[in-house]
Amino acid sequence: MNENGICVIQSPPCVFCQRKDDCPEKYGEKKTYNEHNITLHYYCLLMSSGIWQRGEEDEGIYGFLVEDIRKEVSRAKRMTCTVCKKKGASIGCVKSRCKRSYHFPCGVERECIFQFTGNFGSYCWDHRPVQNSSTVRHPESSPCTVCLEFVEHLPSYSVLQSPCCKTAWFHRHCLQ
Question: What top-level class would CATH report for the domain 24-123?
Answer without folding.
Answer: alpha beta
